[in-house]
Design goal:
Shape: globular
Helix content: 10-25%
Distance between the termini: 52 Å
Structural class: alpha+beta
Strand content: 35-45%
Number of domains: 1
Low-confidence stretches: none
Order of helices and strands: EEHEEEEHEHEEEHHEE
């Protein structure tokens, strides 16, 4: 079995802008984004995401999609990597941008992360430093990053040797000027960027097979609730 995994447990779509996190309650999202009637029973899948060593983020998935808002960014998560779930995420974000047309937005990002838990010697050797640090010190993390200009967007590509693993991060960034322009770029974005990322993993690094890490099992819990009036 291949050691390479596509890790879909991070935010797949990110909008940079100015947001009011207080409005993004589970009830507001349910009634305004997913058209669940007030008082109707709904299923919410809850999961914990390790944002960094000190921070756990609790997500509530409605119809396979979860949102997390801060003052400067809006993050969207998908419960799995199915094409229908990607489509649902894009539709949810379009709906949100249509509901909040005057929201200040400046960027649209799409993120995919790959993890090789048993890297080949060739994969490790790519991180050897010109200074020969590996022969002089114990180096815990080695990383490389590049900004690649693509058609209509920028790819921020990073790879890192962390312990016994190699991580590859693809951030596709599109500059936008308003909510309407952002919404117009969404249809098919996730699938197109994933196809591009997968092809680059094959062309640049020789990976042709992978498994997928998604939410499920012990890290997710189903909660049955009712949508509340958010007026």
């Amino acid at each position: 079995m291949t050691a390479l995994a596509l890790d879909l447990r991070g935010p797949l779509a990110v909008v940079a802008g100015a947001f009011n996190p207080a409005i993004f309650t589970t009830s507001w999202i349910a009634t305004n984004i997913f058209d669940i009637p007030v008082g109707a029973e709904m299923s919410v899948l809850e999961a914990l995401v390790q944002v960094d060593p000190q921070t756990l983020l609790r997500l509530g998935f409605i119809e396979g999609i979860a949102l997390n808002a801060t003052a400067s960014r809006l993050e969207l998560f998908a419960v799995n990597g199915e094409a229908s779930t990607f489509d649902a995420l894009e539709r949810a974000l379009v709906k949100l941008l249509e509901l909040l047309p005057h929201t200040t937005v400046g960027g649209l990002g799409c993120n995919f992360r790959w993890i090789d838990s048993d890297p080949s010697p060739d994969a490790i050797d790519r991180f050897d430093s010109a200074e020969g640090l590996e022969g002089k010190f114990s180096v815990a993390v080695r990383q490389f990053s590049a900004q690649v200009q693509l058609d209509g967007q920028v790819l921020n590509l990073a790879r890192a040797s962390i312990g016994s693993e190699v991580h590859y991060s693809f951030n596709y960034h599109r500059t936008v000027t308003d909510a309407a322009q952002c919404a117009s770029m969404l249809q098919g974005m996730l699938t197109a960027d994933l196809v591009h990322s997968t092809q680059m993993m094959a062309d640049l690094y020789g990976y042709h097979e992978h498994t997928t890490l998604a939410f499920g099992g012990d890290d997710i819990e189903e909660i049955v609730d009712a949508a509340e009036n958010t007026d």
